């Protein structure tokens, strides 16, 4: 399933993210799949934080708000091979952990972190 965030919910604090399902069936002028909104497919994901992940520079405000986060010499967040930071239940990947790099590397880091998060949650729930 492809989805796109539409709106961050909450007033002073984030309470969730409203999303919409996307279809990748149509092709654009270059022959690449072009996303289109699936009508009536809005859904909400509960969340208490929303991190905008576009650009190639880390957000210093984000890092300063995470007490106990460990940063490297270049200002990036130090993570292990699964993207785990020094903070319990906090994972990081992409530019914030490696510095400016390709989206492919960021996607790979996200995939590793997702598997690690799933493993951690399964262990905590058993």
What can you tell me about this protein's structure?
It contains three helices and four strands; from the N terminus they run ββββααα. By secondary structure, the protein is α+β, with helices and mostly antiparallel strands. Strands 1, 2, 3 and 4 form a four-stranded antiparallel β-sheet that branches. The radius of gyration is 17 Å and the shape is globular.
CATH level-two architecture of the largest domain: 3-Layer(bba) Sandwich
CATH topology of the largest domain: FAD/NAD(P)-binding domain
Shape: globular
Q: How many domains is the backbone divided into? A: 2
Strand content: 15-25%
* Sheet with the most strands, sense and barrel status: 4 strands, antiparallel
CATH superfamily of the largest domain: FAD/NAD(P)-binding domain
| Oligomerization | single chain
Give start-end ranges of low-pLDDT stretches.
none
Cα radius of gyration in angstroms: 17 Å
Helix content: 25-40%
Mean pLDDT, all residues: 86
Identify the CATH class of the largest domain: Alpha Beta
What is the count of helical runs?
3
What structural class is derived from the secondary structure elements?
Answer: alpha+beta
The total beta strand count reads: 4
